[in-house]
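Dear colleagues,

As part of the handover before I leave the project, I'm documenting each prediction I ran so the next person doesn't have to rerun anything. This entry is a single chain, and its sequence is reproduced below.
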Amino acid sequence: NLQRLVSCLTFCSNPLEELNSDLHEIPVIGPSTTQLFSNLSSSFALTFPPDSEFVLSTIDHEANISPWVRLAQARNFAVKWWTPSRSELKLTPENLRPLLSEKTKLVACTHASNLTGTIHDIKAIAEEVHTVLGAMLCVDGVAYAPHREVDVKELGVDVYAFSWYKVYGPHIAVLYGSDQAQSRMASLGHYFHAPADTLAIKLGLAAASYELVAAIPSVLSYFGPDRKKTWKAIAAHEGKLQQILLDYLNNRKDVVVYGEISAEANLRVPVVSFSVKGKSSQNIVEKVETCSDYGIRSGHFYSKRMVDNLLGLKADGVIRVSMVHYNTENEIKGLVAVLDKVLA
């Protein structure tokens, strides 16, 4: 079965080596992380008890929020909102702990914010979640996977998903589920697919696009024979890129950088969001793109709850600069020069 074969390749021989999942934990491939999380919530809807509680991060991409909110509303479950301080915008075991109870069934959060780039200590958070018997951690890895190595066993997560099109690949996504998570899933597949003993049957709802799945091995080969070495080099290079931009932004009194302001590679990935006092984010982006070839964006980037409720920004939100390992230091220096001109 091509779906099983490439799923195994994806997670067990994965460029992120991450995944380090066992054969019985072969992941499911789907059209997007958003869709896979939605399928997952429909599966859990059939098994969670009536008094369940969810803990949801307010600084996440909506993909890992809306499915759980809908489920909570449909089943009358309680939702506790996990909101870090505005100054740090960082999820930690310490600010999670007061929200956990014996009724907690699911905690959902992001590995790295797709808006601020801040990295959260998922291993420590998973350990905190698992102090509650039967509680599970569902992690959105979309903003993290393009930049850092991932190992689901080392992290201790129950569910982890990311989109291959963020990792230089085709427009499909993949979701891993631990033994515990899979034991709590009801199958969404046809009744005659029994036993429903794989994620593909439980959540896949038919095979993924073979044409897109067939592209994944080429993505894997891009990282070379020593993937750990490659990911280490990527982190080091991206640290230099974000250092150039953050040095400029942090030295401007009219700029507010959101989330982690350090360029340390263990603290953030090279996704930087900021706003300029007294100026429209959208207007700044339009000016940058009018006078240069740089592509930056403004808005909420599907982290609308954070932008609206925590940051209190207006409709055009933040300015986001997304960098990756194939960008050069000279390119980022050039962007700084353009920003300096536009903000003058």
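Confidence is low (pLDDT under 50) at residues 1-18. Residues 227-250 form the longest helix (24 residues).

All the best with the project,
I.
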